[in-house]
Amino acid sequence: MYHDRYAARAFSMKESAVRALFAVANRPEVVSLAGGMPNIADLPLDIVGDAVRDMIQSAAGPRALQYGSGQGEQMLREQICEVMAEEGIRAHPDDVTVTVGSQQGLDLLTKIFCDPGDVILAEAPSYVGALSTFSSYQAEVVHVEMDDHGLVPERLREAVVTLAAQGKRVKFLYTIPNYSNPSGITQTLERRKAILEVAKETGLLIVEDNPYGLLDLEGGRLPAIRSMEHEQVIYLGSFSKTFSPGIRVGWVLAPHAVREKLVLAQEAATLSPPTFSQYVVSTYLRVHDWRQQITVFRDMYRERRDAMLAALPDYMPVGTTWTHPLGGFFVWLTLPEGIDSQAMLPRAVTNRVAYTPGTAFYADGLGARNIRLSYCYPTPERIREGVRRLGEVLNRESQLNRTFGVRHAGPHFGLAELNTPQPNQE
Amino acid sequence: MTATDSLPTTPAGSDLGTIVVLAGGLSHERDVSLRSGRRVSQALRDRGCTVVESDVNSDLVALLRQLDDPIVFPLVHGATGEDGSLREVLGLLGVPYVGSTASASRIAFDKSIATPVIAGLGLATPIQMALPDEVFRELGARTLMDAMGESIGFPMMVKPSRSGSALGCTRVDDAEQLPSAMVGAYAYGDVAVVESFIIGTEVAVTVVDRGNGPIALPAVEIRPDSGDYDYSSRYSAGTTRFLTPAEVPDEVAAACADMALRVHDRLGLRDISRTDIIIRDGVPVFLETNVAPGMTETSLVPLALEAAGLELGEVCEDLVRQAYLR
Asked: Which Gene Ontology molecular-function terms are recorded (chain A) (predicted)?
């Protein structure tokens, strides 16, 4: 009765077998290296609790429980500008629109920019949640090659030119320059400049998604692309990784014209983004040393990343390669030839370890030989145990491949080579 | 419900002890199982039963011991739920449960045993070969796979001998696809079965025994949009079309019902089972049978109950009552 009434776009929303597996991945018996859930155990809940109580009992209380501005609350937008200044961005609060997580920012941007069939360029691989949003608006994602230094500018130029020649309308480039989800790779400063150069040459709009930017683990924080250009870059930020994901507060920093459309879209979607959440974030930023808190988070994530990077060489079979993230939550693995990461997942779960198969991060079916491991949530000991269990599964898989002559243990593939289809990926 | 349909003062199921609906487990079918569990629990509660939902974990034995008069409704899918091991434990604890015994479940779950047993009844089954993985290591995979191709022919189905929900199952159209299909099946267990691929109409027939002997419910026909009824089409609403009753001639439907009943009887199944069948040229061919069939909103058993004009809660309560009286 419903099936024939759905809009065409509803058919592009699909539940994957992977999603069903997360029910079991979240059991305590299973070491989950799958999700990207921030570990907020270090947040001082007493301070947060007291501050929220004080806020709600103050003159601000009734305002926090009332409808708010479609653009978001003024005082929070001012504070957001201070947060962005940490990454070299100079912005005016008028250009900030508060959203329900940066995920909603992405949704609103896609809604105002994309008609069905329009093209969005994205890194190969790219964030699964963004791919879902794009597909829900029936936009076509074209992946652009990246290497260990991020998106390859020459490939970006080629993609824009080729697609234009095909009569396609490229609406924007979606990029995660810092500690990308899922690859863990960071665009170098030179790359950022070169990508911006290509964008200017070709009139390409850049959507810069930066949820992990402040979680650098080795210092040397790089300036955001938005800090170098403000007309052609739309910037997405989030409090999910630096404060609380449950509070669902993110933002979009966009040029004036875009911001006006965004606010209209936001009003149509929510009337106003949650006022209470905004007051909580604003209070937190005001009463707590949030910069120091981020330092605490960084130290904790560094220890976990190091545990994962130390365990991988001990347990991974020959022919496996991985990235070395300088920040963020993720390590991206390339498995020996012949292994299908999606088919392997139920076996891994049986062996009490979960990961996210690489195919989730491509709109075009690639990624079968890749997996994303996250080190954000489990403790260092559990991370090592999880990697050990994964090694067992991979070794059994490799042994079966040898027995049946499925091609195995090919040469090492760097990220750049991922776009060359391998025989097993066709 | 109209105003005159007033509720009975004593709910029908309130005389039963505490029903423990077991769902979850650590298999890849956990999510499906949890959904089945929630649905059955709600249906039983709506009939006035006292229901406790529980996962299969280290607290289970303590929970069962602590309850006065527990009866278990197992809805755990995957190995632990379907291979008899969980039912063996319930037997050990002396807790009555809905469904087939441990030993019957063990046989039904293992395709390499169930299929030849059903073939022994003179019913049609695929041509099947069952081999453990070490045979391939010892004798050389290439020659064995060549022999399988010659003997069974293409297309063929490669499956783990013991697994549910189509995981590890691959249709193989030529010799080149065989090695990776074998790897896929062996990844789920040490024995794989290779079967001739049966082309035809896929149906599922549910058998329920509410105390008056087993009856077959109307066959549900499965038409996946993608062509293959794989894991994702099994559990995603809208990716598969189900037709109840199946659009097949009456005599064919009767033959399917007869097959399901004979399977239920021959394997010594109890209370409820679901037999999956392909109809080829009007003849039902046995694929497999399930002792813990899914009960989600897109599962086949609830659809069959609906087609038969039966209410899920009522049937579940009858099954619990039988277990209680055993």
From this structure: DNA binding; pyridoxal phosphate binding; transaminase activity
Contact A344 B231 (CB under 8 A): no
Please tell me if residue B167 touches chain A, with a CB cutoff of 8 Å.
Answer: yes
pLDDT tens digits for A304-330? 999 999 999 999 999 999 999 999 999
Active-site hit among B29, B195, B202, B221: B29
* Termini Cα distance of chain A: 37
Tokens of A414: 């760097």
Average pLDDT, chain B: 90
Contact residues, chain A, for B132 at CB < 8 Å = none
Same domain, A256 and A137: yes
Position A419: which residue type? N
Count of Cβ atoms closer than 10 Å to residue A171 Cβ:
22
A3 interfaces chain B, CB cutoff of 8 Å: yes
Q: Which residues contact A412 (CB under 8 A, 6 or more apart)?
A: A319, A321, A334
Q: Which domain holds residue A181?
A: 67-287
Two tokens, residue A388? 């050990």
- Residue B236 CA, chain-centre distance (Å), reads 17
Distance CA A335, CA A355 (A): 13
Closest by Cα among B130, B116, B127 to B191: B130
pLDDT of residue B27: 80
Asked whether residue A251 falls in the same domain as residue A369, the answer is no
* CATH classification at residue A14: 3.90.1150.10
Interface check for B184 against chain A (CB to CB < 8 A): the answer is yes
Q: What is the ipTM of this complex?
A: 0.75
Domains of chain B, with CATH numbers?
A: 107-123+199-308 (3.30.470.20), 128-196 (3.30.1490.20)
Segment B28-52 shows an average pLDDT of 93
Dihedral sign for Cα A52, A53, A58, A59, please: positive
**Could you give the number of structural domains in chain A?**
2
In a domain, A47, yes or no: no
Q: What is the pLDDT of residues B136-174, one digit of tens each?
A: 988 989 999 999 999 999 999 999 998 766 778 889 999
* pLDDT bracket for residue A290 (50, 70, 90): very high
Same domain assignment for residues A232 and A304: no
* Cis peptide preceding A245, ω within 30 of 0: no
Domain boundary among A261, A287, A313: A287
Helices and strands (H, E) in chain A, number of each type: 13, 14
Does some domain include residue A52? no
My answer on whether A225 and A365 are in the same domain is: no
In this predicted structure, the answer to whether residue A209 has a pLDDT above a threshold of 60 is yes
Domain end call among A268, A287, A306: A287
Each residue's pLDDT tens digit, B42-86: 999 999 999 999 999 889 999 999 999 999 999 998 878 899 999
Looking at the structure, do residues A110 and A211 belong to the same domain, yes or no? yes
**Closest residue of chain A to B30, computed from CA coordinates:** A24
Residues 6+ apart with CB under 8 A from A228: A192, A193, A196
Residue A54 forms part of a structural domain:
no
Task: Please indicate, yes or no, whether residues A111 and A248 belong to a single structural domain of this protein.
Answer: yes
Q: Closest Cα partner for B23 from B88, B71, B80?
A: B80
Cβ <8 Å between A343 and B187: yes
Full-model pTM? 0.84
Catalytic residue among B41, B163, B165, B233: B165
- Residue A424: inside a domain: no
Predicted confidence (pLDDT) at residue B325 exceeds the cutoff of 80: yes
Residues of A in contact with B145 (CB under 8 A): 404
Rounded (10°) angle between helices A341-350 and A17-25: 20
Whether residue A83 is found in the same domain as residue A175 = yes
Give all strands of the β-sheet with B50-54 in edge-to-edge order.
Answer: B50-54, B18-22, B71-74
pLDDT of residue A415: 45
Q: What is the C-alpha separation between B80 and A365, in angstroms, rounded?
A: 33
